[in-house]
Write a structure and sequence with these properties.
Elements lengths: L1 H21 L4 H8 L4 H8 L11 H27 L5 H24 L4 H22 L8 H22 L3
Helix pairs in contact: 1-4, 2-3, 4-5, 4-7, 5-6, 6-7
Length: 172
């Protein structure tokens, strides 16, 4: 199971990297990424999808960011589950998995609401951070160090939440 997850995660990351080299991001993505704090991470994340080369509206870019967030967080949840299961206290594992599930649901809710209520969609994108916080909190008060793979995946939630939020802000 763990080997399959590692292989799937590796394939996902490699495909994102390969796709990011196949197409230049659109002018909108370049301009948007210039406006955020972490320009390189923004370009890497949003430019990973070949559709990014043809994106022309903030609405479409927000949808792309949220779809990427859902895919990445779903992949991350699977990796976290295999990384933590059997190696850490079951309560820590359960709380982290629950946290990543929360983040997935929040990103999904944001995507579903983007056309009807952009402010609520922005709130839902921000709420995805609560899932990451829940995972970190599971380790707090223990003497267990959070594995780097988990910290990396939490940083992805933070990145996509921030990007989605900034993009949705352009919609209202």
């Amino acid at each position: 199971m763990a080997t399959t997850t590692k292989i799937l995660t590796t394939i996902f990351i490699v495909s994102l990297l390969i796709n990011s080299f196949n197409a230049d991001p659109s002018k909108l993505i370049l301009e948007f990424c210039d406006s955020v704090d972490n320009h390189a991470a923004c370009l890497s994340a949003l430019g990973a999808d070949p559709k990014s080369a043809t994106i022309e509206s903030h609405h479409d870019l927000a949808q792309l960011a949220l779809n990427l967030a859902i895919a990445n967080t779903t992949s991350s949840k699977t990796l976290i589950e295999s990384t933590l299961t059997g190696k850490f206290d079951p309560n820590i594992t359960s709380e982290c998995i629950k946290g990543f599930s929360w983040s997935i649901n929040s990103f999904n809710n944001s995507l579903k609401g983007i056309d009807d209520d952009a402010e609520s969609a922005a709130y839902d994108a921000t709420a995805a951070l609560d899932g990451a916080t829940e995972c970190v909190a599971a380790f707090n008060g223990t003497k267990v160090e959070i594995p780097q793979e988990v910290l990396t995946r939490i940083s992805y939630i933070q990145l996509f939440s921030g990007l989605a939020n900034a993009l949705i802000d352009h919609l209202y």
